[in-house]
Design brief:
Elements: H1 6-12, H2 15-18, H3 26-53, H4 64-75, H5 85-101, H6 108-124, H7 128-155, H8 170-257, H9 262-291, H10 315-324, E1 328-334, H11 342-363, E2 367-374, E3 378-385, H12 393-396, H13 401-411, E4 415-420, E5 426-433, E6 444-445
Parallel strand pairs: 1-2, 4-6
Antiparallel strand pairs: 2-3, 3-5, 4-5
Helix pairs in contact: 3-4, 3-6, 4-5, 5-6, 5-7, 6-7, 6-8, 7-8, 8-9, 8-11, 10-11, 11-13
Length: 449
């Protein structure tokens, strides 16, 4: 027969049969040695006492020395009862019957050894099929041996029933007593062995789940840290990139006209100063959010929105800043203006800011058009230019401009389009839901118009 795949075998086996109990630790094995010594000492003591009192159940016993040897033979296998439980059970069961055939005096400690062997097989045997059938086989053999003894007792009674006074026949009562006692003995060993196995399995499952929970918490923590770093990086990019680009252009213009037109140079430097102050103000607002604690232990529903964050009302200032960099910008609002969630307003502002930054830095454009449309359930912002269509190079060359826009729009379940226009130039259009977010679909598509 070919080797069965482990996954297939696991699918065929019941759940309780797929778990394997770990091998006993050294401390447990040392305790088995102590238990074995205790059973051996008890066997020797009981053998001496039974022979001394003459209470010999099976009649004339062998010599005391042989009885002690039988007691040791029954006790010593218990030292390996958790490492090789089924083998120990078979050995102890066989020796138990053999000792009774030899009519040894002590049966109490022999029964204790057999109980421990049955219990250990149920509690420690890795192969549950072998554990079940080895115990059933030994128990059936024991009841067979008991039946032989009962038949011999009925045929040749060796008890004095002269004092019997109960309602049942003395021999019937003796048979029922022996069967009931042995049933209780073997079934309790079987039951408690299974219970120990089940308890160990559940304990192991709890430990495994606790470890999985710990790993999951670690992964969630790492994911949260990464997400927070991405958010901080996106905010820093949005706050710094636009203003620094404008400052760089204005500083370059001031340097070029410093000797020829001091008034124009002063105006450019004034713009640099104002832009720097604006950038510092936004940075302070961002740092304030990072340092503040959430109210009542709850995160804001719009994590990117805060009191110092710009919104749609500041688009006019953004357009003015872009114009100060030498770009002709038209700004139009279409539809009936209405309040939108702070997070949506901030994301719309950042999309326009990043798009204008790309126009100033990469597009070599003379004109740009900024449009805000209030639709029925969405807000749409669009930035187009008449440049050479290089505004998307930030994403191609490893920049984070379009990536940040996609992330911001995706947070609200919006849609982003970015690409060259058919008549020349470049267009960025973001559509942001202003009601409950239905999905988080995010895509970047080329515009054909």
């Amino acid at each position: 027969m070919g080797r069965v795949d482990e996954g297939e075998a696991g699918a065929r086996e019941p759940g309780w049969n797929r778990w394997r109990r770990p091998r006993p630790e050294p401390a447990i094995q040392r305790s088995d040695v102590l238990v074995t010594l205790a059973v051996l000492a008890g066997s020797c003591l009981m053998t001496v006492l039974v022979n001394s009192m003459g209470m010999l159940v099976f009649g004339a016993p062998p010599s005391l020395g042989e009885q002690l040897v039988w007691g040791a033979a029954l006790s010593l296998p218990l030292v390996a009862r958790r490492r090789y439980p089924s083998a120990v059970l078979i050995v102890v069961g066989t020796l138990f019957i053999a000792a009774q055939v030899r009519q040894t005096g002590d049966s109490l400690m022999a029964s204790v050894a057999l109980f421990l062997a049955i219990y250990s097989t149920g509690a420690w045997e890795p192969n549950r099929t072998a554990a079940r059938w080895s115990r059933i086989g030994v128990i059936v053999a024991m009841f067979g041996w008991l039946g032989i003894g009962l038949v011999e007792s009925i045929a040749q009674p060796d008890y004095d029933f002269s004092a019997a006074a109960g309602p049942l026949d003395p021999m019937l009562a003796s048979v029922l007593y022996n069967i009931g006692f042995n049933l209780m003995f073997f079934l309790s060993a079987y039951f408690f062995g299974n219970l120990a196995w089940l308890s160990a399995r559940r304990r192991d499952e709890l430990e495994e789940r606790a470890e999985q929970l710990r790993l999951s918490q670690q992964q969630n923590t790492r994911n949260a840290i990464v997400a927070e770093r991405v958010r901080i990086a996106r905010d820093l990019h949005d706050v710094v990139a636009h203003h620094v680009s404008v400052m760089g252009i204005q500083a370059g213009a001031a340097r070029r006209v410093l000797d020829k037109d001091p008034a124009l140079a002063r105006e450019a430097l004034r713009t640099v100063e104002e832009t720097a102050r604006t950038a510092i103000g936004e940075l302070r607002g961002l740092l304030g959010v990072l340092r503040s604690e959430p109210e009542n232990g709850q995160e804001s529903a719009e994590p990117d929105a805060h009191a110092a964050s710009p919104g749609l009302d500041q688009l006019a200032e953004l357009v003015s800043t872009a114009e100060s960099a030498g770009l002709q910008v038209t700004h139009g609002v279409y539809g009936e203006a209405r309040p939108v969630p702070d997070g949506v307003a901030l994301s719309a502002y950042r999309v326009v800011q990043e798009a204008l930054t790309n126009v100033v830095k990469h597009a070599s454009a003379r004109k740009a058009d900024v449009r805000v449309r209030y639709l029925e359930s969405t807000l749409e912002v669009e930035v187009s230019d008449d440049g050479v269509g290089r505004a998307g190079q930030g994403a191609v060359s490893g920049g984070f401009g379009l990536l940040g826009m996609r992330e911001r729009v995706a947070v609200h379940g919006g849609h982003l389009e970015a690409g060259r226009r058919e008549g020349g130039g470049y267009r960025v259009r973001a559509t942001l839901p202003t009601g409950p977010v239905q999905s988080t679909e995010d895509s970047e598509e080329r515009s054909a118009s």
